Amino acid sequence: MKKYWLLIFSFFIFGSTLAQNAIDTIKCDADTLQSYCVYVPSQYSKVPKLPVIFLFDPAARGRLPVVLFKPIAEELGIIVIASNNSRNGPFNLSLQAADAMFTDAFKKYHINESEIYLGGFSGGARVAISIAQNSPTIAGVIACSAGFSNIPEKKLPWYFTGIAGLQDFNYIEMQQAHLTLDSLQTDNNLIFFNGPHRWPPEGIIKQAMLSQYQHRHNITGQKQEVSIDKQLYRKELTFQNEAITALEALVFDRAENVKPIGWWRSKQAGLKKALITGIKADSDYVARQISFISINATAEFESCYQAKRYEAAEEVLKIATVFDAAEPMIAYRYARLSAIQKDQDATLNYLEEAIKKGLKDKKMIQNERLFSFLKENKRFKAMVNY
Questions:
Q1: Residue 140 half-sphere exposure, CB side, CA atoms within 13 Å?
Q2: What order do you get walking across the sheet with 23-27 strand by strand?
Q3: Cβ(40)–Cβ(26) under 8 Å?
Q4: Does CATH place domain 230-384 in 1.25.40?
Q5: Residues 140 and 212: beta-carbon distance below 8 Å
Q6: Could you tell me which CATH number the domain at 4-216 has?
Q7: Helix (H) or strand (E) holding 108
Q8: Model confidence over 78-99: pLDDT tens digits?
Q9: pLDDT at 20
């Protein structure tokens, strides 16, 4: 397998004609299907080389993280570059996107190769971490809302900054990463913000980038000590492990671990009871578990669906409905299952329900081949504005 991480250090540095103080989209010379967004700070023309942070978004939205990092990058004098191709999906495609971006950027910009940072959100964070784990000369990683695919077993040579929202379904995973790195005596910090699973706000990005920069330059800063409620941590870990075991039992047909719908309703009732306190920490906990069930039910539904285990897929949807009946994508997935049976009325009813609950992506409905048998149906035409 090609060692993409070595590309960082294998190219001569050349000048750039990029306009400063602007965010530009640059096509890679060697592969014009690959591109990235870049911000070059105003200090660029005044110093021989500048640090860089390469960023990865799970939906290939390169401009989004560049906008978030731009203010602190201007303040510290750091080039910001984010891939427009790396996304959730086959991991090798993200590595190819990283390869193209590294190759092109190191040819075009004056980069200080001794101060290279990586960062990303969700699946993009996993890409950044994976590259860093194979490149000991990386300065640091900012991982938003996702941790290690391969858990480290020894001290890491770079600084790790983890970020998680208080309602993020990967909140517990980021705590696990922090505890693991502490046990390995790896320098790291963990930052929380009030929000769900998403890129953190600009102020949190600034805090994270500052912590990386200060650590690299041995600048004494205000490091906030992370306080983890061990009792809540164990409670949350137990809930999620039980949920995953029960969901995977449906996917892999492990009858001994399949739970009846009543078991799931009792879990939901327990979460609902926790909301009675009115304490924000409790509502945050509930939000994390509901989103955890939702995201994993989505993944397990697709696994069952692709394996043509449609009865199991329907059972997964029943579980998802227990926790988040208002989610429009549940109705949409029911419509897909109904379409397989060519059940016209049920398919239309579920699609109308999905739209009523907030589904706005009419193109997704139009482009779904399963619904092709409805193309001439008046209800369907009115629904998708044919």
A1: 20
A2: 23-27, 35-39, 79-83, 50-56, 111-121, 140-144, 159-165, 188-193
A3: no
A4: yes
A5: yes
A6: 3.40.50.1820
A7: helix 91-108
A8: 999 999 999 999 999 999 999 9
A9: 53
